Amino acid sequence: MCDVQEVQEELRRRREERSSLQEQCKRLEARRRHADRSLSAMEVELAKQREEHSHAQLLKQEVVRDTAATQEQLNENSELLSLLSERVEETKKHLQTLQQELSVSIQQQQQQQRAEHLQELDRQAARAGLDDVNAAVCQLEDRGRRLTEQQLQLNQRQEELWEREKRLLHKEEGLKQQEEGLKQQEEELKQQEQEEGLKQQEEELKQQEEGLKQQEEELKQQEEGLKQQEERAKTAGGGAKTTGGLVRSDRRGATKQT
Fold it and tell me: How far, rounded to the nearest angstrom, does the alpha carbon of residue 82 sit from its chain's CA centroid?
């Protein structure tokens, strides 16, 4: 009877161990599923971080292209401004030369005409009487009026030349303002590059990606450990079944002896 009680106690203990092992297997299975879900979530997060990294790279490339285009436009405008400045200087010199030539030519014409008129008056006065002198004076006055008109035309032409020079100067100032605006835009772009926000985001994304890889490796190691524990638990459950069979055989032998 004592042997039977010991066998029953052993069976009860083995059943409890088996139940405990089954419960442990269930917990291990639940942990494995949780680890699978965590790994899937980590993979989704890693894909999201990679997409953000790609987007940051595209933004960086766009900034570089915009900077290059702005620099190219600034160079073109600088070249255009230099050409216009050279043309303005050439136009100024040409206008000054024309003005001097016109002034000299008019003065020479006036002096020559006055000398001719005086000579003509002297000849007419010597050759004719007072009437001829009066006629010569009228002619001289007419020529004086024509010279005055020519002087007015010259003055008008000088004013037109000055107006043209003012327009060229105004255009030159507008180009300088455009150049200053482009330089300011270039400085703003350089400041944006100096802030290196995109580089910092890139470094953070790399660090996050490395952390996710490490977590993924840890989860894989945990999953392998869970699988090994599950295999050991299944092996232990098989041993319990074998022990139960042996106990039942001993029990039958004891009954036959009785």
Answer: 28
Q: Are 132 and 124 in contact (CB under 8 A)?
A: yes
**Helix H segments across the chain?**
2-127, 130-195, 197-257
Count CA atoms within 13 Å of residue 190 on its CB side.
7
Q: pTM for this one?
A: 0.34
Q: From residue 136, give the alpha-carbon distance in Å to each of 18, 111, 114, 183, 193.
A: 149, 17, 12, 69, 84
CATH number of the domain bearing residue 57: 1.10.287
* Contact status, residue 253 vs residue 2, Cβ threshold 8 Å: no
> How many whole angstroms separate alpha carbon 136 and alpha carbon 78?
62
What is the rounded distance in angstroms from the CA atom of residue 158 to the CA atom of residue 156?
A: 5
Q: How far apart are CA 167 and CA 172, in angstroms?
A: 8
Residue 67 in tokens: 């900077």
One-letter amino acid of 239: G
Total domains in the fold of the chain: 1
Compute mean pLDDT per 10 residues along the chain, 258 residues long, and list them: 79 89 89 89 89 88 87 86 86 85 82 80 66 70 82 84 82 80 77 70 76 77 76 66 47 45
Nearest 5°: CA angle at 107, between 104 and 109? 105
Quote the domain boundaries for residue 251: 2-257
In terms of C-beta distances under 8 Å and separation of at least 24 residues, what long-range contacts does 79-85 make, across chains too?
Answer: 80/175, 81/172, 81/175, 81/176, 81/179, 84/168, 84/171, 84/172, 84/175, 85/172
